[in-house]
Automatic annotation (TrEMBL):
UniProt function note: O-methyltransferase required for two non-consecutive steps during ubiquinone biosynthesis. Catalyzes the 2 O-methylation of 3,4-dihydroxy-5-(all-trans-polyprenyl)benzoic acid into 4-hydroxy-3-methoxy-5-(all-trans-polyprenyl)benzoic acid. Also catalyzes the last step of ubiquinone biosynthesis by mediating methylation of 3-demethylubiquinone into ubiquinone. Also able to mediate the methylation of 3-demethylubiquinol into ubiquinol.
Segments of this protein annotated with the region Disordered: 31-64
Protein name: Ubiquinone biosynthesis O-methyltransferase, mitochondrial
Superkingdom: Eukaryota
Subcellular location(s) per record: Mitochondrion inner membrane
GO cellular-component term (any): extrinsic component of mitochondrial inner membrane
Keywords: Magnesium, Membrane, Metal-binding, Methyltransferase, Mitochondrion, Mitochondrion inner membrane, S-adenosyl-L-methionine, Transferase, Ubiquinone biosynthesis
Species, as recorded: Riccia sorocarpa
Length: 314
């Protein structure tokens, strides 16, 4: 069993994390640009129809297309995922590790949400009544189980191909057909003043251009006393050896170049980011792979993968 990790860090550790975060933010600032505006994939009248990204030719030339704020989106990163979007539901394809890891991530999510919102974890639909957004939802690997647990789910992704794949898969099941999908960004949802009980960003923050602004957007989307859950990779020697050398180059679980080790984030840095965004860290657990059983499990070991929940302060 994993235990709740304490986030009362020493002053030395806090200052070290602050210096690390500040230096990385400074180096990224030179290459960053102000938020771009591109045509929006706005929600259709039918919840499960994939949204379009531009106005139809038949529309009046005087009608302005809806706009979407890209914010922290990294175009190079989204291009990687667009190239393999058709393989999201291939259990033996590039997303095989996520399929294998998914039950473990979901067990943390389910437990954290039920405890925080005082839900009965043993009921068939423990998340009933909760409004959830999955930011960077990909092909819907997390959205579908959440819908089966009773949550009202919106999945958003900056890659239009991902949304099309997610929508096509969701309509195969009457339960998951209730999921709404949009090709948009967290920043755009903030502009629209949308709010949710729960905001998820699983294996996403290591792919964005500006983690600080991304965390602020997640915090802006969650209601007071709501919960934000983030999972990512630690920037450690172990993660470089296992997540990049092992997973991408030796085992071939992921396409080479999927991850940039320099964009990984230590637990202390993530805690600092959350604090800056008015989020109080609640609990954290490592996600560890056992090569002998070929299974993932929750652990106190956060040296490679980890997941953390936080609560928005009033």
């Amino acid at each position: 069993m994993w235990k709740m990790r304490s986030f009362v860090q020493s002053n030395i550790l806090f200052r070290q994390s602050l210096r690390l975060l500040s230096s990385s933010s400074t180096s990224a600032a030179g290459a960053s640009i102000r938020p771009q505006v591109v045509p929006d994939g706005s929600p259709s009248s039918t919840a499960n129809e994939p949204s379009t990204s531009a106005a139809e030719p038949s529309q009046s030339r005087f009608q302005k297309p809806k706009q979407i704020y890209k914010g922290s989106i990294d175009n190079a990163e989204t291009a990687k995922f667009a190239a393999i979007a058709d393989t999201w539901w291939d259990h033996y394809g590039p997303y095989k590790p996520l399929h294998a890891m998914n039950p473990t991530r979901l067990s943390f999510v389910r437990s954290a949400l039920c405890r925080h919102f005082r839900k009965d974890e043993d009921t068939p639909k423990p998340l009933e009544g909760l409004k959830v957004v999955d930011v960077g939802c990909g092909g819907g690997l997390v959205c579908e189980p959440l819908a089966r647990m009773g949550a009202q789910v919106l999945g958003v992704d900056a890659v239009e191909k991902n949304i099309k794949v997610a929508s096509a898969h969701a309509i195969k099941d009457p339960i998951t057909s209730s999921i709404q999908y949009r090709c948009t960004t967290a920043e755009q949802l903030v502009v629209e003043k949308q709010e949710f009980d729960v905001v998820l960003a699983l294996e996403v923050i290591e792919h964005v251009a500006d983690p600080i602004e991304f965390c602020k957007s997640l915090a802006a989307l969650v209601k007071n006393d709501g919960m934000v859950i983030i999972s990512t990779l630690n920037r450690s020697i172990a993660s470089y050896g296992l997540a990049i050398i092992g997973a991408e180059y030796i085992l071939g679980w992921l396409p080479r170049g999927t991850h940039d080790w320099n964009k990984f984030m230590t637990p202390e840095e993530l805690a600092l980011l959350m604090n800056r965004a008015s989020l109080s860290m609640d609990e954290m657990a490592g996600i560890v792979f056992n090569p002998f059983t070929q299974r993932w499990y929750l652990s106190d070991d956060t040296s490679v993968d980890y997941i953390a929940s936080s609560v928005k302060r009033r």
